[in-house]
Write a structure and sequence with these properties.
alpha+beta, Immunoglobulin-like, 5-stranded mixed sheet
Length: 169
């Protein structure tokens, strides 16, 4: 019994090291999560997919770009609306582009519910000139979303204004 518990205790540090490694890799590359149907996916237009549908076969629903107005760094447009009453049930595809000359971050999460286990959150870091796509299953937006809004901002510049994605359900 003693040998078995010692063997288990030796495996625990190895498991923690692997978990921290994956966490670090996930954090550096950009992360996305939602504990619902398909989860949020981040990728390139040609190779990315969400719930089995390639990004290149989906219509881009929202286009956001990093802008600088004087010393303020933010995402444009500051407000976007998706009306699910008139939109087909295909996944939502968001294009985020960094047209500035410095690295920019993009973070989108549920307003007011970011701590909930089913909260939707996506984060990616973009090099100058880089573009990424974020695919979100419609069910994650309509059923997992506690509220009607998702906020987006640049986590590298937390005091600068962000924006809001308003969902009409």
């Amino acid at each position: 019994m003693g040998a078995k518990s010692r063997r288990g205790s030796r495996l625990f540090p190895a498991f923690c090291t692997v978990a921290i490694g994956f966490g670090t890799l996930f954090g550096m590359e950009g992360g996305a999560f939602a504990l619902q149907a398909g989860g949020v996916e981040i990728g390139d237009f040609e190779t990315g997919s969400v719930v089995g549908q390639p990004f290149k076969e989906l219509e881009v629903d929202v286009r956001l770009m990093a802008v600088e107005i004087g010393s303020v760094k933010t995402w444009y447009p500051p407000a976007t609306v998706i009306d699910f009453r008139v939109r087909p049930g295909r996944p939502v595809l968001i294009k985020v582009a960094n047209n500035s000359t410095v690295e920019r971050g993009f973070q989108m999460e549920e307003a007011g519910h970011s701590g909930a286990p089913t909260a939707l959150k996506a984060q990616v870091m973009l090099k100058p000139g880089e573009t990424k796509y974020i695919g979100i299953p419609t069910s994650d937006l309509t059923y997992a979303g506690q509220g009607l809004t998702l906020t987006y901002r640049d986590p590298l510049h937390p005091n600068d204004p962000g924006g809001v994605l308003l969902m009409i359900k």
